Amino acid sequence: MPPVTTPPDLLVLHGLRVVGFCGLERLAEATGLSHEDVESELIDLAVSGLVTRVPGPFGGWGPTEAGRAADAERVSAELDRAGARDLAADTHEAFEELNAEALDLCGAWQLRPLDGVVTANDHTDAAYDARVLEALADLELRTADVCAELALALPRFGRYRVRLARALERARAGELDQVADGTDSFHTVWSQLHEDLLATLGIPR
Question: pTM, whole model, 2 decimals?
Fold first, then answer.
């Protein structure tokens, strides 16, 4: 069966459901769409009552209750159209086996043993940080293998590998918040992939 490409309006609506309340820039990064396309889709979705915007410097966009219901219905239909429901369930099961490892590694980035005491990682031990990054890179490769078939059926899932790899690349370049603290960090993107698998399958958090 050929892949099912998610239309831009659903990419934006589903992106808000997965990312949560956010601004235009974060939503564009999550969906891979241009800022202009995201803004256009948000305006149309708002007219339809599916999303709402809170103005102000700390404002942003979020789905309405009607938007959440519409997203759940459309994503479920998309999954069936792709004939990928069993595949998504298998991918989710395999992902869950990796999830604890991801959380442990992100925790190891933030805390490390020092003289037998667990303390905040001040990132002065380059060898320690390099080992954690190497382990995260290996995890990212295994996650890509787990999600590869689903990404062929539903290409929107391929975006997560791009974002995870980019976060690690930036962390190696010295942007230390890209592992576990930034809004597009490895941990944040990992959590969004987890949320997307759950939402796609209709599994409550």
Answer: 0.94
